[in-house]
Amino acid sequence: MISMEFIDRIEEMELLNTLWSEDKALVVIYGKRRVGKTRLIQEFTSSMDTFFFTFSDTSVGVQLREFRSRAAEYLRDTMITKLKGDWYDTLRFFFRNLKDSTTVVLDEFTYAIKADRKILSDLQRLWDGEPGDRKIKLIICGSMLGMVKEEILAHTSPLYGRRTRDIHLGDLRYQDALDFFSEPEYGITAYMMVGGMPEYLLVASKHKNLRDFVTNELLDRKGYFYREPYYLLSQNLKDMKTYFAILNAIAYGNTKPSKIANFVDVPGRSIYPYLENLQRLEFIRREIPVGGNPKRGIYTLSEPMLYSWFNIVYRKRHETEIGAASFVPEDMNRILGTAFESLSIEYMVEMNKKYTMGLNRIGRWWHKGEEIDIVCLKTKSKEVWLFEIKYKKLNLNTCKRILNKLEKKSELTPWFADKWNIRYGIIARDIKDKASLNNDGYLCYDMGDIISLTRR
């Protein structure tokens, strides 16, 4: 694990502090691998009396032996190592010998379930009785999202109704991601390339610019990201070949189920279980057009790193294998152009939060081959903002041409037909004479605005 400064997670820390003021708490913390779950727990419990155990991906016998050894050290009592029973006997002894107000952390708990599902019912029985009046706090942490949702959070789980709160830890927002970098322009570019995974950002921050980062970490067989998708998929999925092909299809622009099925070469209807599973594991998401038909949804990658990887590493895998792959700026511009649309949506969401602008829906719109990059709705006042997104440097004349086309395109939208108040705007990499456009009533933002927005 790469060492790093603890950044953000302010809301999660505040929530945990509130929960710990209660007499008894069972909290489930889950999220993608490397998103920072363990680090969050370590920071939160650093000043507490804490028993911290991480399950390994091994047999139940080995797990029991490792747990008893660690518990003997913590309790200063070797009696637990002499137990011959199962998890119920081990955990009963452990809970009965804990001091008041102890915090217990069971990290990578999904490995325990994988080895022996009975641990769920054992833990439930003990949690209902053993802590008694003692203010024991329990944190269960897991990275195998499918198992967390099905075995821990589902209403059929033995632990259902016992948990005080579950916390889904997501990627860092772009404002916090910038704290990893001394140069904001490169920081925001790296964020667009790999997303808000803390460890990914730390790897990117070791380099001075995009060329060095891509060359050393993606286009080099020894690079950090060279085999990363294979590792991520192998941890969560069995049919790697089909799932890998689906992610590849989406990364190459096949966003409709029928096109994905054709790319993967499977019957149309058989693609849906795969898509649902990838959604559940947060590799992809389903988008529907703002104000449009929910049945017209498309699928996009949730993980920017995967989009970059398929469009850089996988496309150039043969050249990379023989050490002949090279950095091509045009490839980066194409990838960053798509990523900039997602960043712009995130920027509008954060703007709405910070300045309480009253927007109640932010997303994309498409219909019969026409698209609008960002649509922001104020439903109560029947106001809509429409944006064109360009990862380019734009002058005043170019902006006016883009805005004129956008106004024409708006005539195809339902808000034009319903006579909503429509405002038009551009979000670009750089806009010359931006103030002039804003004075004319347009909403214009560029990379400088995006970088300068903070929650602090």
Account of the protein in words:
β11 (421-431), α21 (434-439) and β12 form a beta-alpha-beta unit. It is globular, with a radius of gyration of 25 Å. The longest helix is centred in the C-terminal third of the chain and has 27 residues, at 329-355. It starts with 9 loop residues before the first helix and ends with a helix. It has helices at residues 10-19, 37-45, 60-75, 87-96, 109-115, 118-129, 145-153, 174-177, 184-194, 198-205, 210-217, 228-236, 240-251, 257-264, 271-280, 304-314, 317-321, 329-355, 396-410, 414-417, 434-439, 447-452; strands at residues 25-30, 50-54, 103-107, 137-142, 165-168, 284-287, 298-301, 361-367, 370-378, 383-394, 421-431, 443-446. The mean pLDDT is 93. α9 (184-194) packs across α10 (198-205), α13 crosses α14 and α13 packs across α16 (304-314). With 456 residues, it is an alpha/beta fold. Strands 2-3-4-1-5 form a five-stranded parallel β-sheet, with helices on both faces. A five-stranded mixed β-sheet has the order 8-9-10-11-12, sandwiched between helices. The protein has a two-stranded antiparallel ribbon with strand order 6-7.
Secondary structure tally, helices: 22
Alpha-carbon Rg, integer:
25 Å
Largest sheet properties: 5 strands, parallel
Query: Low-confidence runs (pLDDT<50, min 5 residues)?
Result: none
Helix content: 40-55%
Broad structural category: alpha/beta
Strand content: 15-25%
Average pLDDT across residues?
93
Distance between the termini: 29 Å
| Largest sheet: spatial strand order | 2-3-4-1-5
Number-wise, the strands total 12
Shape: globular
